[in-house]
Amino acid sequence: MNHGFVPEEMPVVETGADLAPVPLQRLTAQGLRERFRTPPAWEPERIGDVGFGTREQTGAAVLIPLVTREALTVLLTRRTSHLKAHAGQISFPGGRVESEDPDAVATALRETQEEVGLAPQQIEVLGHLPTYTTVTGFVVTPIVGLVAPPLALTPDPFEVDETFEVPLDFLMTPAHHRRHAMTAGGGRHDFLSMPWRGLGHAGEERDYFIWGATAAMLRNLYRFLAA
After folding, report:
1. Which 8-state DSSP code applies to residue 98?
2. What is the number of other CB atoms lying within 10 angstroms of the CB of residue 227?
3. Which of 66, 88, 102, 174 has the fewest CB atoms in 10 Å of its CB?
4. How much is the average pLDDT of 80-105?
5. Percent of the chain residues topping a pLDDT of 70
6. Residue 111 — φ and ψ, nearest 5°?
7. Which residues partner with 123 through β-bridges?
8. Sign of CA dihedral 213, 219, 223, 225
9. CA 125 → CA 55, 173, 200, distances in Å?
10. Is the Cβ–Cβ distance between 79 and 86 less than 8 Å?
11. Alpha-carbon Rg of the chain, whole angstroms?
12. Are 27 and 172 in contact (CB under 8 A)?
């Protein structure tokens, strides 16, 4: 959605305050293993970019890295401002499928190692969520994995401006989810955000506006865990 708009300024039309948070026992490493081992019947939400773009579609995969601290966190990146797609946005590590990748898991693990230096052997893959199609034409498979600390990250300075972690229970509390509305192309288009204020990589407190595809995939993780 690169139309010269500022997503933070788009009006909020609703929040998820009427939805129940995920039970805390499911937000543990063992709870997540059990949920992916025996998945429930559930329906993903189709919010945001779906049907908005007209570009040729390209396969991609991202890793939703859940760091197994005392309380689980989600490792996120802020993309550098010069990139052609989703510049400056908050993202999961990942990227396009390459011909040598046998599947989406291989793509996500390879891209994660290239972007932030996280070795595949440090990641316990749990499963995947439904694909998400972005306005830039990427059909993204989100791979969910547990990551054991300590993390010795080496972000690629060309692609990654910084890495940071957000508590998983914050992101899985739907009262923190906001739905925004914008008008473009003669119609209304909605997107989600999950604003968070926390510590940056250098230890300073700052605001992070998690929105778009990243927020939509987190919302589907919420739907999967809450079902």
Report:
1. -
2. 12
3. 102
4. 82
5. 90
6. -65, -35
7. 147
8. positive
9. 31, 23, 26
10. yes
11. 17
12. yes
CB atoms within 10 A of CB 115: 25
Query: Quick one: how far is CA 129 from the chain centroid?
Result: 11
3-class SS letters over 183-218? EECCEEEEEEEEEEEEECCCCCEEEEEEEHHHHHHH
Burial (CB count within 10 angstroms: exposed 0-12, middle 13-18, buried 19+), residue 138: buried
Angle at 223 between CA 219 and CA 226, to 5 degrees: 130
Mean pLDDT of 149-159: 91
- Asked if 78 and 162 touch (Cβ cutoff 8 Å), the reply is yes
Tokens coding 170: 């914050």
Q: What are phi and psi of 12, to 5 degrees?
A: -85, 125
User: Which residues are paired to 161 by β-bridges?
Assistant: none
Bond before 150 cis per omega within 30 degrees: yes
Question: Looking at domain 43-226, which of 3.90.1330.10, 3.90.79.10, 1.10.10.60, 3.40.1360.10 is its CATH number?
Answer: 3.90.79.10
pLDDT at 132 > cutoff 70: yes
> Pairing relation of β-strands 58-67 and 138-147?
parallel
Q: How many other CB atoms sit within 10 Å of the CB of residue 188?
A: 10
Query: CB–CB of 174/17 below 8 Å?
Result: yes
Tell me the residue type at 147.
Answer: V
CA atoms of 122 and 79, how far apart (whole Å):
23
Provide the β-strand partners of residue 164. Answer: 76
